[in-house]
Design brief:
Layout (H helix, E strand, L loop, with lengths): L3 H6 L3 H22 L13 H21 L4 H4 L1 H18 L1 E3 L2 E7 L2 E3 L1 H19 L7 H20 L3 H6 L4 H6 L4 H20 L1 H18 L4 H27 L3 H10 L11 H12 L11 H4 L11 H33 L4 H25 L17 H23 L2
Antiparallel strand pairs: 1-2, 2-3
Helix pairs in contact: 2-3, 2-16, 3-18, 5-6, 5-7, 6-7, 6-17, 6-18, 10-11, 10-12, 11-12, 14-16, 16-17, 17-18
């Protein structure tokens, strides 16, 4: 019988210690974000920080359970877990509660469960299972389509819940495909598409049409004007014009008015400090007012007087910036960078393809959350409402990220058991 004590002996403790540091930082800053003198005890279970303590303890229990399971459990049941979570994503459309405009929560008394948080974990498992069971190569069309369908299915269901932010997270799995052989040309094409989207939204469709036609005309002056090159340039121009029109229509017809306003504010096309731009404006004031060392624990005025909505969840980083300053913010960022580097390093040393691919899935999701959450609090990226992993308030997020992490820690520990 397997000696589970050896599994714990082979645990990568640096990754666990960084996890614990982020969780503790989160708990302290959630306390600061909602602190008031009438509820000053950090163990007050009626407040968010008291509830978060329960989530933390239960998350640690879940981590322990994962570490005690057979390492073959998750590879063997990847598709079952994926199917179960897809069922929950579908069920929440019919039985879910509406929170902040999104029908994405199961409400059980005072307890809320958000299936989309666990969908990231389930998708990482299913993607790793499929890609490790075949000789993945972009040369086979099936090998390219099925992984996209695996993370495209939850995106579709989450978009139906009106939770665009959570749906966008799944785009991070492209990093996994790139590590496993996705063509660099396709990655560059994707980057160019993003640039085209930004400039179309910023300048408008008409201005971009003029620019593209002029660029196409200039290109014809500097290339050999044979039929092949002319067809390529004209074909690329037509494709670009079609994409730009689709972007313009999608922005006007698909996005909600508040989403359109957020993008316009981010691009500088609108100034709305009392409306959709209020959160980001107040967040930047809070972070900037912290200076180099910060105002001190529980001394943040923006935090104390609740100027920033959602300050214990999506905008928790502005509490860090105000009360702990540049130094505290840098510590948090460095911890995340070390965390991601460690996960990638662990992924590269795996002996099984499943563990390596899953590790990259974990790193990709955490990287996206980290980059976008901090980016939106300082006004560099649009507000899409996703939490800062392990730090933001919320049980579903903490549980999902904890399970996702410790499944990988378990796989890594088992790697040494097999040597």
């Amino acid at each position: 019988m397997r000696d589970e004590r050896k599994i714990f002996a082979h645990v990568d403790w640096p990754i666990v210690l960084i996890y614990l540091a982020l969780v503790i930082i989160g708990w302290i800053n959630i306390y600061a974000a909602v602190y008031n003198e009438d509820h000053s005890s950090i163990f007050d279970l009626t407040q968010n920080y008291g509830k978060q303590l329960i989530w933390i303890i239960s998350a640690l229990v879940l981590a322990g359970v994962v570490m005690l399971l057979d390492p073959k459990f998750f590879p063997a049941f990847s598709y079952v877990i994926y199917a179960l979570v897809m069922f929950l994503l579908l069920a929440v459309l019919f039985k879910g509660a509406v929170v902040s405009g999104s029908k994405s929560w199961f409400q059980i008394g005072s307890f809320g469960l958000q299936p989309s948080e666990f969908a990231k974990f389930a998708t990482a498992l299913a993607l790793a299972k499929y890609m490790s069971s075949i000789k993945y190569t972009q040369k086979l069309l099936k090998n390219s389509i099925i992984p996209i369908l695996i993370f495209g299915a939850p995106v579709f269901l989450i978009l139906m819940q009106n939770d665009t932010g959570s749906a966008l997270v799944f785009g991070a799995f492209v990093i996994v495909l790139y590590r496993e052989g996705l063509s660099t040309k396709l990655l560059i094409a994707g980057a160019l598409l993003v640039i085209l989207i930004v400039f179309t939204l910023f300048l408008g469709e008409l201005a971009m049409i003029i620019i593209c036609v002029v660029l196409a005309a200039i290109s014809l002056l500097f290339v050999k004007r044979n039929k092949q090159n002319i067809f390529r340039i004209v074909g690329l121009l037509i494709l670009t014009l079609v994409i730009m029109h689709a972007i313009d229509v999608g922005f006007a017809k698909v996005l909600q008015p508040h989403q359109q306003a957020r993008i316009n504010v981010l691009l500088g096309k609108e100034i709305d400090l009392k409306g959709v731009g209020y959160n980001v404006h107040q967040s930047k004031i809070a972070i900037g007012s912290g200076g180099f060392w910060g105002k001190g624990f529980l001394q943040g005025t923006q935090t104390k007087y609740s100027f920033v909505p959602e300050q214990s969840t999506d905008f928790i980083f502005c509490t860090v910036g105000e009360e702990w300053g540049f130094v505290g913010s840098l510590v948090v960022i460095v911890l995340y960078v070390l965390f991601l580097i460690r996960i990638v390093d662990m992924a590269e040393r795996q002996r099984s393809h499943f563990s390596r691919i899953y590790g990259y899935g974990l790193a990709s999701i955490i990287f996206f959350h980290f980059l976008v959450n901090i980016g939106m609090t300082i006004g560099l990226l649009p507000v899409i409402g996703i939490p800062l992993p392990f730090i933001s308030y919320g049980g579903s997020s903490l549980w999902a990220f904890t399970i996702m992490l410790f499944v990988f820690v378990k796989q890594d520990a088992n790697r040494l058991m097999l040597l």
